[in-house]
Amino acid sequence: MSNLPKIAWIGLGIMGSPMSENLIKAGYQVTGYTLEQDKLDRLAAAGGTAAGSIAEAVRDADVVITMVPASPQVEAIAHGPDGILENARSGALLIDMSSITPQTSVDLAKAAADKGIRVLDAPVSGGEAGAIEAVLSIMVGGEQADFDEAEPIFEALGRTIVLCGPHGSGQTVKAANQLIVAVNIQACAEAVVFLEKSGVDLKAALDVLNGGLAGSTVLTRKKDNFLNRDFKPGFRIDLHHKDMGIVTDAARTVGAALPVGAVVAQLVASLRAQGDGGLDHSALLRAVERLSGAQV
């Protein structure tokens, strides 16, 4: 029998499925729950156990990990008679890896403490590829002792793992991450349109740009999306729209000006309004093309 903690995983989407599978590969016993039967089947095929409810999944777990789209979903799975807090055992560690508002994380930690459940907020960056390759950046908020306990689990999921401060700090850092990523994608998209309209060999141009100061992880990860106009979602515009709302709202609360971020947030919102919300966030290129007169 393994001495590793038993893990319950709630939320098996684009990120959650490969992440849970990496824990299985690392030797963890993972029981999962999500709303889609095909995702439960995938977990079972990978060696995990499919549960019929949140309560069933978390009942015997030492660690509960959640990866769902936004604050309302975190609140829905955490609270209520069928939720995590009512059904997880006292002393369990709840790790929320969703990207939500910092305040939601703070409130969740307080509610969980009343049940004897410890909480870490641990959102990630790296997208679907990072989840599959287990090279995610994981930014964590919570207590040092809980972080130390969770670190071996994080090491099976990511490469850069940092405790950023008390509850909510991980979400604050993730909001900053999403600001940087969105602005970076927008700049890359504008460069792509500029280069193509100038008649330059786009692949050659992006290769040389990525080798200099203009290079970035964003350009490395999204270069083929731009070249091939392949916008299969690794991280959907819908979700980045949600995250830009989080960062602009949080910045307003603390009195931080985000002039460029606010513009990019509106460009993300406009792309979503045009029906592209289900596409990868590299589809910001489509918005630039439309503004430049292309029919897309």
UniProtKB/TrEMBL annotation:
This is 2-hydroxy-3-oxopropionate reductase. Residues 6-165 form the 6-phosphogluconate dehydrogenase NADP-binding domain. Its EC number is 1.1.1.60. One of its GO terms (molecular function) is 2-hydroxy-3-oxopropionate reductase activity. It comes from the Bacteria. The keyword Oxidoreductase applies. Keywords: NAD, Oxidoreductase. InterPro entries: 6-PGluconate_DH-like_C_sf, 6PGD_dom2, 6PGDH_NADP-bd, HIBADH-like_NADP-bd, HIBADH-related, NAD(P)-bd_dom_sf, Tartro_sem_red. Belongs to the HIBADH-related family. Residues 168-287 form the 3-hydroxyisobutyrate dehydrogenase-like NAD-binding domain. The keyword Cell wall biogenesis/degradation does not apply. It is an enzyme of class 1 (oxidoreductase). It comes from Streptomyces olindensis.
